[in-house]
Amino acid sequence: MKARLQPVLLPLAVAVAFVAGWHLLVKGSGTDIFPTPKMVLLGTVELARKGVLLKYVVASLFRVASGYLLAVFLGIPLGLLMGWFGRARMAFNPAIQVLRPISPIAWIPIAILWFGVSDLAPIFLIFLASLFPIVTAAMAAVQNIQLVHIRAARNFGVTGLDLFRKVVFPAALPQILTGLRLALGVAWLVVVAAEMIAVNSGLGYLIIDARNAGKRYDLVVAGMILIGLIGLGLDFLVRRMENLDQVRWGLSRN
Amino acid sequence: MLVPTATAQEEVKREADARGPKLSVRGLWMTFPAKDRKSQDVHVLEDINLEVREGEFVCIVGPSGCGKSTLLNIAGGFLQATAGEIDVDGAPVHGPDPRRVFIFQENGVFPWMTVAENIGFGVKRSTEAERRELVHHYVDMVGLTGFDRAYPQELSGGMKQRVEIARALAAEPDVLFMDEPFGALDYLTRLRLRHELIQIWQRERRTVLFVTHDVEEAVQLADRVVVMGRRPSRIRAILPVEVERPRDLADPVCRLLRDEVFGIMGLDHHGQGLQAATSDKE
Q1: Residues spanned by the domain of B248
Q2: Which of A169, A174, A192, B5 is the most exposed place for a label (fewest CB within 10 A)?
Q3: What is the complex's ipTM, to 2 decimals?
């Protein structure tokens, strides 16, 4: 097998084996509930034809984007401040460490109480879930800046906002991006869970509704596969950003 | 390239002396306070007195941990001495200043900037054209032509130190503080960079205070070698090196000087203590 084709052919072989195994297990077990691969495919096509597929994907992506971007624009400055100013860290860190372990799922009742059954509830949950990895990463990034760099910058008369712009932020960027990638993964996990309870559209809603409204497990599995593929796509986008010069220097290479 | 004649060099020295020392250390003491109740205060430097003339290359040697880097950091304004004064151009040192650039042993170069961006970091010129020309000048001077767009991670240790040196020079400082700049490099690279440093220095003649643990390096580079003892360190001796550069370490005068420094430090050629080693508290 040519080396160039291996990254494509090997996973493809595993996928084919997996689908074949799936099909055989379903047929062999004689179940009439769990779908075969072909049924899932047909279900997906059905959703696409009805226009539901695109609508639900867009709804989920919209909620993730809103909550995530809110967390980015709040979390990065907060983390940077906490990393740089010891007193800010002392003030805010305990609160953050207490809130962090509370699963976003545990926030669902409060979210519904505050925001009702609307888009705001899942957006709030996504915001919460994304915030903590981002703040922690930004804070750690600043704390990990090498003293020699700060000294060199001060030596050249660079202080204050200039120091932040030219040294602190660029030095922290790789670790911040790692935090962003982590947070995006968590956000995508949470949106699905949040949609199962609080709203009437989206991929999470599709899964619960497909089961409740008619035991359509073919749509359930279709929804799951879609969630997986979109999650992969999002992660791929962030990893592309890791190739930028401003970031590449700080991430370990194989 | 013209090499200044002996009388021309003396003339420069006399003029510099008339202006007063470039760097003056008077009665400097440094103690690091104990970290907790169980440990002791650490006395590092004791009554350091030193004057460095403008355009002079002074090396500080001493055993590991003797505080030579501490002394340099105080001179650079990164640490505050416990007692005593340090003046540059007659004005006391309060903190780091772009006129006195510090060259670090490693990792001083900013990894998120290219070679050209690093070198241009401290450049004081106002017009873009002047800046670019200056950066280009120093990229060439340190032998990194063609690497301006490279990132530090693509460079070897020796190349990164060249960037470090170029960045310092491009800021056109009055004084250069060099803290074991070649200490992290392999032997051959060290030899090469020493040689290139002297060539560069001879073109611009900035005042240099250079810390090293390598006695031969000090003898090869310095106008004067300051020998420090073990902690709490005092200056044990200051030896002038009046050999023309570039210096051959095999030259008998250089060998004698090296041996003399070893003797002052109480060591023989194998780095072992001499039987008649004098006490540091003499």
Answers
A1: 19-99+175-268
A2: B5
A3: 0.85
Tens of pLDDT along B57-101? 999 999 888 899 999 999 999 999 999 999 998 889 999 999 999
The DSSP letter of residue B124 is -
- Do B92 and B53 fall into the same domain? yes
Q: Side chain identity at B25, as an amino acid letter?
A: V
Are the beta carbons of B84 and B28 closer than 8 angstroms?
Answer: yes
Question: Quick one: fold of A38-248?
Answer: MetI-like fold (1.10.3720)
Q: For residue A155, what are its two tokens?
A: 């030596």
Q: At a CB cut-off of 8 Å and minimum separation 6, what does A131 contact?
A: A71, A74, A75, A183
Would B193 be classed as within a structural domain?
yes
Residue B92 shares a structural domain with residue B124: no
B244 neighbors B212 (Cβ within 8 angstroms)? no
Touching A: B residues 112-151, CB under 8 Å: 112-113, 121-122, 151
Residues of chain A with Cβ-Cβ distance to B171 below 8 Å are 156
Strand partners, B51: B24
According to DSSP, the residues that pair with B42 across neighbouring strands are B32
Nearest residue of chain A to residue B168 (CA atoms): A156
CATH of residue B58: 3.40.50.300
Using a CB–CB cutoff of 8 Å, tell me whether A165 touches chain B.
no
The count of structural domains within chain B is: 2
